[in-house]
Design a protein that fits this description.
Number of strands of chain A: 26
Number of domains of chain A: 3
Largest sheet of chain A: 9 strands, mixed
Helix content of chain A: 25-40%
CATH class of the largest domain in chain A: Alpha Beta
Oligomer: homodimer
Number of helices of chain A: 17
Distance between the termini of chain A: 72 Å
Strand content of chain A: 15-25%
Radius of gyration of chain A: 23 Å
Strand order of the largest sheet of chain A: 2-1-11-10-12-13-14-15-16
Amino acid sequence: MTDFPQTKVNHVALTPASFLKRTQSIFPERLAVVYGNRQYSWKALYHRCLQCVDALNKQGIARGDVVSVMLHNTPEMVELHFALPMHGAIINTINTRLDASTVAYILDHSGAKCLIVDQQFQPVIMAALALMQQPAPQIIEVIDAQSDYNDPIPKIDSITYEEFLATGDTQDNWSLPPDEWDTIALNYTSGTSGKPKGVLYHHRGAYLMAMGTIPAWGVPQHPRYLYSVPLFHCNGWGHCWMMALVAGTIYCLRQVSAKAIFDAVAEQNITHFGGAPIVLGMLINAPKTEQRAFSRTVQVMTAGAPPPPAVLEKTGQLGFNVMQVYGLTETYGHVVHCLWQSPWDELAFSDQAAIKSRQGVRLPICEDIQVLDLETGKPVPADGETTGEITIRGNTVMKGYHRDPEATKKAFVGDVFHSGDVAVVHEDGYIEVKDRLKDVIISGGENISSVEVEAILYQHPAVAHAAIVAQPDEKWGEVPCAFIECIADEQPTAQEIIAFCRARLAGFKTPKNVVFETLPKTATGKIQKFALRVRAKDF
Amino acid sequence: MTDFPQTKVNHVALTPASFLKRTQSIFPERLAVVYGNRQYSWKALYHRCLQCVDALNKQGIARGDVVSVMLHNTPEMVELHFALPMHGAIINTINTRLDASTVAYILDHSGAKCLIVDQQFQPVIMAALALMQQPAPQIIEVIDAQSDYNDPIPKIDSITYEEFLATGDTQDNWSLPPDEWDTIALNYTSGTSGKPKGVLYHHRGAYLMAMGTIPAWGVPQHPRYLYSVPLFHCNGWGHCWMMALVAGTIYCLRQVSAKAIFDAVAEQNITHFGGAPIVLGMLINAPKTEQRAFSRTVQVMTAGAPPPPAVLEKTGQLGFNVMQVYGLTETYGHVVHCLWQSPWDELAFSDQAAIKSRQGVRLPICEDIQVLDLETGKPVPADGETTGEITIRGNTVMKGYHRDPEATKKAFVGDVFHSGDVAVVHEDGYIEVKDRLKDVIISGGENISSVEVEAILYQHPAVAHAAIVAQPDEKWGEVPCAFIECIADEQPTAQEIIAFCRARLAGFKTPKNVVFETLPKTATGKIQKFALRVRAKDF
């Protein structure tokens, strides 16, 4: 067989930056980004990215350097997701709710050369800079005229983002990465156990994630997409890159609230958005005065924690069609989705909601998902009952943990990525996540899925948010302890809640204690169970 | 920056075979292939492919061996597009209308180890085997009970396809190609000038072609796709692989006719199909008794020769929404598509047809399309007038021409693939193909686009098919000569045709001779201009 080497003609590095270049040339005047009174066409966005590339060069930032970004979902955050990959720098988004010591750790560990930050975060950044071990990065401040934080006099040694941009010109001479395996992003995990780990993404994976989400979510040309998922979380699930591919319009959102989402859907004709189940909870629990009617069904992708069927059912009744997905920071976001089967159209709403609470099947870009028995390492039977750990193999699994080959090796044992999530496989092959490995409660030798008990709690009309964690117990080892945040004006008793669960669950799964309080949540809306586990020891 | 090598966990060869494996597991019972009274679910198709892989192994076919296939668009043709890539053998589809000496040339040149052939082609194969220089391949005959060619007694030394398949079992132990750059297909060009050239495709390109066509054509989940494009032509534009990705249903078609298409659209609710402009011509010129009404708009992808606006307008009126694409065998099929812009919705039907007759802009998977001035090699201005040669760069450009490094080098000059097609670039960046380089007529120093003159001829109500070729002329060097196939019962005179053109074209562009006859066409419906050029010398 004659064989030919790869050439510049027929082998081009896969990178999502290509999507922007193409779309700005085909749809120059279509809206790319809308944020209140600011809006940019695809051409304007591209020009700002070209300026940014040149400005980065002039700042001495080189290909492969890390640029940290601590921003809300404002236009700067979107454009940096293109400009940095075009330049060849690595985008390191920082969770905007982190404390100073964690920010300092990330800046030190990533070796960031530059930090682009919203002025709102001056206090935490000043504190972080004082804590850093390594030389401080250059600081570029984004001043958002539409926020409450727009002090024209910066308190730290910095230039403004617009000053920085103005140093660059718009010559179009950026180049594709030399290798599609080159790093595009560095995303730190939430670090609920120990120090955050730096997850490395490559251009190839980001390209495939954007392209593969289109058939997976049925995304048409020109969607109107509300960016309610923080872009600091798995690069906003890669949706910004997908929007460039389908020439959509991205509606920015500085602060997520039920009112902001309902207003955008009603006034901007939003067609798609994403959000953690807690966002769905916000929507269904919003006051009637904030809930607005809209004529089209809005497509919603949700991920983060398994949303209880009751939440899915109520969300559907409001006009949102929710597709649940599953993934991790280590997999660029979603690798599993609850792909709809047409026979399910005939089912009752509540039965549909039960199906939608499953995570589903692998995306087209994901090569293999297995649920492996924790003891034998063999795939569990598809019986809907036997639990195992989800493992993943495919082109959207991270390169590894930055500066941590040991942790990388441990995560990649047996040629698959170990998710640390426990699931069952249903008869039809759809997987259902039962828990984080470390959230499973072991009571008298029996495993209790905290998710299963939480799903029951969410059926109670007074419950807004709920979490079940393990509480040490002399007799049983561990017992389930419930933490509940109630809907305004509702005040059930612990006895009522326990009785409600007992009527629906086996005795050993029923919570032994119930605590009513506002639940601690992460920036992405996940309930911080690790904090609750600590508190549960006191009861 | 820490860097990590590719591992089995996070780097998986891109191959369209993955789509089949995924879809058969998620939608096992959905129909994959329908052919008259035969139909296969995705699971059944997969099982036949597994059997085929094992049967190939038992026949001694190894990874990298060439298997030639000379079949109509029957279920065997579809399944071999999956089974051969799963096995690792290279699929070499042979145009079913080729003569024995060309078939012999292809079998010799490709080094085919095996030939899978429809029994209809026994005569040509027997003749080809006699002409071969190299050892003959093993012959496997497909006997199609739904055709007129199903003689149970094979005349050549062969086994039947079903006997062959029965030797394989359905154990699921095939593996991905070791490298996504490995060859998946070997497709010979039509060889209008000299010997056919063998174009090599790799798995990576086939994967990206399938995935990138989804946003480019707006393909939803579960389309009902009529396979009217021969699968021997650029592997049916890669649509079979795309159908596996979106779990569509492929409706096979042994023989394309207007009646067969209208019947399938009306009875099988076809949503998508593809075809050369000649197929569109068949549809609009079909007798009223064959044309059938249908309620949905059917999406049609067309390519091959630029369809005249008049044809596009009439097709649209019948309920077909045509998207024109452009590409070559060397680019896996389409790399340019006439992507719709919403402001065009407001235009009149005829203006829309004029736009649709442009080829358009690059697909998301194509990195760069340029139209380069033939003399300077610089991009032509976007003025809709200046012509140049289309050049292409991207991951769906062939690896090269099999056993022909010289021709490969020539095609790849300047780090782009040279298409040999002449086009202009309109102000909005959409390209419009004017001609094959070799079809341009040079008359008195002026270039005449044969396509432009043909578009005028197609406006004449008596014209069914038309071709303009160069005729040698003592005074002008060359002059345009028209070959016309009339609609039944229409008999215009040459003078009428010339006057019709003269009223609409510059004098030097007006045909000097008009010949009325049935036009010679290739298997894919292209008019064989090379044959007409020879004939034009006689007038």
